[in-house]
Amino acid sequence: MSKLLVVVGITGQQGGSVAEVYSKEPGWKVRGISRDPSKAQSWRSKGVEVVKGDLNDTSSLIAAFKGADAIFSNTDFWNPFFNPATREKLKPGQSLNEYCYNLELQQGKNVADAAATVGSLGRLILSGAADVSKATRGKYTHTYHFDSKAHMAQYVREKFPELAAKMSVVYVATYMNNWKSLPAPTKVDKNSPTVSFFLSSRIFTTQIHTDTPTQQLDGSYRFSNVGSGQKPIPLVDTVKDTGYIVRAALQSPPGKTILGSGDALSWSGLLKVWCEANKVPFGGYDEIPFDAYVDNMPVPDLGLEFAEMFAFMDEFGYTGGEEGVVHVQDLGVPCPLTTWEEHVKAEHAWADAL
Prior knowledge:
Layout: E1 3-8, H1 13-22, E2 28-34, E3 49-52, H2 58-64, E4 70-73, H3 78-81, H4 96-115, E5 123-128, H5 132-135, H6 144-159, H7 161-164, E6 167-172, E7 174-175, E8 195-199, E9 202-206, E10 214-215, E11 221-226, E12 233-236, H8 238-250, E13 257-260, E14 263-265, H9 267-278, E15 282-288, H10 290-296, H11 303-316, E16 325-327, H12 340-347
Parallel strand pairs: 1-2, 1-4, 2-3, 4-5, 5-6, 6-13, 7-12, 11-15, 13-16
Antiparallel strand pairs: 8-9, 10-11, 12-14
Helix pairs in contact: 1-8, 2-4, 4-6, 9-12, 10-11
């Protein structure tokens, strides 16, 4: 008899990757949860069951989880963040980031509350992140999209020790395919760069260049961001590899915190690989001052969130030095992974910049 994996967030990159792998995995069947099942109809042709479930409604999750042997859950901080209607829900003095943190954390708690009722459940895999506020001892307290996920796992451990014994947390690394929504770089004068920010498929021009290589007049390319540019940042091909990472987690004993990445490169190293793959000169890396990044971010509430995230990764590392985090490749089970060079060549990353 096949085991049942329930995927929370099947319409997203992580959940879609997990569903794709397990729809072909012998001995397993997949059930996807969507608030609007009509948006996930394509999965039915792959043999995936799609049911209605609302992360804000625990009772709907209890029904959707019925009979599950395993659950993979990934919640979404950014969808409400970029929904203009969300600002109307803010309390006096509350930032948009704080609201989205509270919303995502509550949704994670609802998943845990529902999962705890499933007698058949053997495993729970949470897509998580480091507790930035804790890891930095309060230095960086505005990386809400990390802390919300970290505090979900903490909630499970504190309220449901039996469920926690079945749980593993996967830290999905920085998405390699973020470049797809970035503006194509343009040839500019090194001494007066024009700059673009990427914000969830929204492009805003400002005075600092970040997140995508820029061609200089001498034909070389440069890259800019907050931080030294020398600290290795774990990277993952989210669509191709998340499913395999979660499969490796399910094939390993529970109770682990797993870093899922196919590569680890500094911002400078990332650009070097891109330049080598495209046979163009590497120009170097420029550090953007923290305050300049925040001040020039045109979207309220976002500059500090991103600046602290980049500074955190540069100073403390992607996992914040958390003890016991194991890389997925060290689990001792097969797990195909993609390097940044492979991704660049396969996906023609930033081809418009050439």
